[in-house]
Amino acid sequence: MSINTSVLVTGGAGYIGSHMSFALTDKGERVVVLDDLSTGVRAQVSTGATFIEGKVGDAALVRRIIRDYQVESVIHFAGSIVVPESVAEPLRYYANNTLASHALIETCVQEGVRHFIFSSTAAVYSADAAQPLSETAPKLPISPYARSKLMTEWMLEDTARASEFKYIALRYFNVAGADPKGRTGQSTPRATHLIKRAAQAALGRIPYLEILGTDYPTRDGTGVRDYIHVSDLIDAHVLALEALRAGGDSDCFNCGYGRGTSVREVVGEMERITGRPLPVREGPRRPGDPPMLVADSTKLQNRLGWRPRHDDLADIVRSALAWERRFNT
What residues are annotated to the active site? Predict the structure, then answer.
């Protein structure tokens, strides 16, 4: 990396992207954040980063950014992420996710950007695949959101075969928690993340937490997910960037701990930490939600040397609570 080159972080004012902006500026990187602020929060971007408001699908704008800031790597977070919303509005998701990513990738190739890290999802896997899920598990996404992500992975794979362009796709399991230094956290309006909502309910920000689905084929009837602390996920991005800069090949990696936690178990942990009952109501399943998603992250650990530092549900819940208290004061 030349001292004059930059990393472009799309969606860098969002939950995960804002953590990325801090991690990179902490390392002394030159960072440019591109975000349209449809869900992101400008104040949560690292003050060490250059912020530009705009859309990733705006090829002319992206081209100017790449040239003006000598962008050599792109970390792509921008996109829509609410599964049931994607079921109700599939064309909007294909536009915001797949088509916008196509425009971004095309501009990167035309401008000679060689390193690209993509924010993908564990939802690309078949709901019937054996758990924990390895990267070779069958792909059969059941929501437009997940399909839009897999389509983008396919575009990246085909583009890498046809050019010198290299990418790493990171398939997230359930991201939660907040920056240990309290600089940023989950602030998306109308957030649907379970631990975020549980923290809001615990602090009286919302009247109750709704448990969506109690008849799944799981140990207590509620959905089971592999919750990963956002800081550990960001570490995986840093390692992925280092690997591409060192000449590594294009690849995809699961990001999770390999341990499933049910919705009721998350509720129990929140109650244990706060010392009081959580107000809950039971509701029907959300469209597009699989019963269980648990990662096999062996490949990430072996190939990139990833070692989680916050592999503890209590740590995740406490950091989410701390952020929620700070964010709402």
Answer: 145
Q: Which position has the token pair 């650990």?
A: 301
Question: Which is it for strands 261-262 and 224-225: parallel, antiparallel or unpaired?
Answer: antiparallel
Q: Are strands 174-176 and 251-255 parallel, antiparallel or unpaired?
A: unpaired
Indicate the angle between helix axes 194-202 and 263-274, nearest 10 degrees.
Answer: 30
Q: Quick one: 21 exposed, middle or buried, by C-beta within 10 A (0-12, 13-18, 19+)? A: buried
Terminal alpha carbon distance of the chain: 40
Residue 69: both structure tokens together: 């800031």
Q: What residue ranges define each of the domains in the chain, with the CATH number in brackets?
A: 6-176+227-255 (3.40.50.720), 194-225+258-323 (3.90.25.10)
**Tokens representing 292?**
């269980």
Alpha-carbon torsion angle 295, 298, 301, 307, nearest 10: 50
- DSSP for 11-25, please give it: TTTSHHHHHHHHHHH
Contact 34, 8 (CB under 8 A): yes
pLDDT band at residue 329 using 50, 70 and 90 as cut-offs: low
- Residue whose pair of structure tokens reads 């964010």 in the numeric block: 327
Tens of pLDDT along 132-174?
999 999 999 999 999 999 999 999 999 999 999 999 999 999 9
Nearest-angstrom CA–CA distance, 131 and 293 = 7
Residue 146, helix vs strand vs coil = helix
